[in-house]
């Protein structure tokens, strides 16, 4: 579930105005509530500082809110209800925020008592489109009230227009309320410590004149943050994009450690790359099946209507494989090895990287030449190809192109537009070769699936393989032009 809300901190004596007519809706007052809420976090508040929360509330049980984004004063983030009794947080709730907690222990950090007045904005069918609540919050220290604050919260129901929040806020401001403030209750309750930066912060001030160490650390931090941000989505399994992004983050980290190896302690970098290889393999098996599923489902729609059911039966075998691989992935990321790896990555992103002396030099002098190595390997591999390259040779070129692209993207903060332009051209080559590889993999799987299939399914497998063969040949014909565009000498003048 996605939460879309904005908050307003009213001044003393503020009275809630009549909200009838906002967005053409009817304001309906609901019964007030007395809420008792306990929030859980680590001693250093790493979950709160990241913008997430884990709470137990008397009226709705356990809720996990994941870090989100603020757009036009509105906080948009994932909200998940978890079954469980009062007391210690259930494992399913901790699982969703494990990447933020890692190996740290979690405990109660704040208790709130809230008197809540509620107004629903409903349409002509009586369906709620938004809820406006007026909360008087007491932060408790034992039985003593440590502090109090009041806030108005406007939550837009999923499917309702975002403009509704703007209209409600405008009416509240006309009545004397303040500007939108998306700060969560738990942050206001905990005070300055919860307002401290999250564990991983990517600097926007890294330039060519910065020490190379700062640029390397910033690049690593970006990928670590990406991995952690997509962890909960991987666990939920609702959207393949989360596994894709986590895998990309893992691959980038391995590639960056390779690109920057002359600036890093060799033993440290090798050990970390080995652990990332393990994680990448766990993510990769699931992601490869998801790509194949997406590919074949799309191709199934191109078959004659009478053959689609048989093709669907074939694709169902892939779903079974995906489910088995997903179980293995979840076992891996719920284990100590993964949490310890995340701890090491966060440590690296926050400063504990053993650099060589070269890393103290100017980033603009040190980093751009590091792209020449991956480029040289790619160019030599392409030059060595036969006039009709084997499929595995084109796959090798794709892998080398990806390494070259990642290396170029890693130095964009210090090399600027020329590096970004070069990376885009290499990405185009990688995309064409990726399409070729996907078509080859699909054909191989269909060939194996057809071998033991019923006649109708075997026939459908042949039809699908034929469509994949067309894509394979198209990509094979297109890749030389993509290589010509990526290999232009002018693209490499910046190193």
3D architecture notes:
The protein is an alpha+beta fold and 495 residues long. The protein folds into two domains: 2-195, Hypothetical Protein Pfu-838710-001 (Beta Barrel), CATH 2.40.320.10; 212-492, CHAD domain. Helix content is 53%, strand content 18%. It is built from 17 helices and nine strands. It has helices spanning 46-50, 91-96, 98-101, 163-174, 185-190, 212-229, 231-236, 240-259, 266-300, 305-333, 336-349, 363-366, 372-383, 391-410, 412-415, 417-451, 455-486; strands at 2-8, 26-41, 53-57, 61-65, 69-71, 74-82, 107-122, 128-141, 144-156. Strands 1-6-4-3-2-7-8-9 form an eight-stranded antiparallel beta barrel. Strand 7 (107-122) and strand 8 form a beta hairpin. Helix 8 (240-259) crosses helix 14 (391-410).
């Amino acid at each position: 579930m996605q939460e879309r809300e904005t908050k307003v901190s009213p001044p003393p004596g503020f009275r809630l105005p009549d909200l009838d007519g906002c967005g053409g809706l009817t304001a309906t007052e609901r019964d007030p509530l007395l809420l008792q809420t306990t929030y859980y976090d680590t001693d250093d508040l790493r979950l709160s500082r990241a913008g997430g929360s884990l709470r137990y509330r008397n009226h709705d049980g356990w809720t996990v809110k994941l870090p989100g984004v603020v757009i036009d004063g509105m906080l948009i983030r994932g909200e998940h209800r978890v079954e469980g009794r009062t007391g210690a947080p259930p494992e399913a709730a901790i699982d969703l925020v494990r990447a933020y907690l890692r190996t740290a222990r979690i405990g109660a950090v704040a208790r709130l008592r809230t008197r809540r007045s509620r107004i629903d904005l409903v349409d002509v069918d009586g369906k709620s489109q938004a809820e406006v609540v007026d909360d008087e919050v007491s932060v408790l220290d034992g039985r003593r009230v440590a502090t109090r604050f009041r806030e108005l919260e406007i939550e837009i129901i999923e499917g309702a227009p975002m403009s509704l929040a703007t209209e409600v806020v405008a009416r509240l401001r006309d009545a004397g309320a303040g500007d939108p403030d998306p700060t969560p209750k738990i942050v206001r309750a905990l005070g300055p410590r919860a307002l401290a930066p999250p564990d991983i912060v990517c600097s926007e001030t890294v330039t060519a004149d910065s020490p190379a160490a700062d640029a390397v650390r910033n690049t690593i931090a970006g990928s670590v943050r990406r991995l952690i941000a997509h962890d909960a989505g991987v666990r939920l399994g609702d959207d393949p994009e989360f596994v894709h992004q986590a895998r990309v983050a893992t691959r980038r980290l391995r590639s960056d450690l390779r690109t920057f190896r002359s600036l890093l302690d060799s033993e440290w970098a090798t050990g970390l790359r080995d652990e990332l290889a393990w994680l990448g393999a766990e993510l990769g098996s699931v992601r490869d099946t998801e790509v194949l599923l997406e590919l074949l489902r799309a191709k199934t729609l191109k078959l004659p209507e009478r053959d689609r059911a048989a093709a669907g039966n074939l694709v169902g075998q892939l779903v079974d494989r995906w489910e088995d691989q997903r179980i293995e992935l979840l076992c891996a990321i719920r284990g100590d090895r993964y949490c310890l790896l995340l701890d090491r990555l966060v440590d690296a992103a926050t400063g504990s990287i053993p650099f060589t002396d070269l890393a103290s030099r100017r980033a603009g002098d040190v980093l751009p030449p590091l792209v020449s190595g991956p480029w040289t390997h790619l160019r030599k591999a392409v030059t060595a190809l036969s006039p009709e390259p084997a499929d595995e040779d084109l796959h090798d070129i794709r892998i080398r192109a990806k390494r070259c692209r990642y290396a170029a993207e890693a130095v964009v903060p210090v090399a600027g537009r020329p590096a970004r332009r070069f990376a885009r051209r290499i990405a185009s080559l990688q995309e064409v070769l990726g399409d070729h590889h996907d078509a080859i993999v699909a054909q191989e799987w269909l060939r194996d699936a057809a071998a033991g299939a019923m006649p109708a399914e075997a026939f459908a497998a042949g039809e699908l393989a034929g469509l994949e063969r067309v894509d394979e040949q198209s990509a094979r014909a297109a890749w030389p032009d993509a290589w010509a565009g990526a290999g232009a000498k002018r693209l490499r003048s910046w190193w």
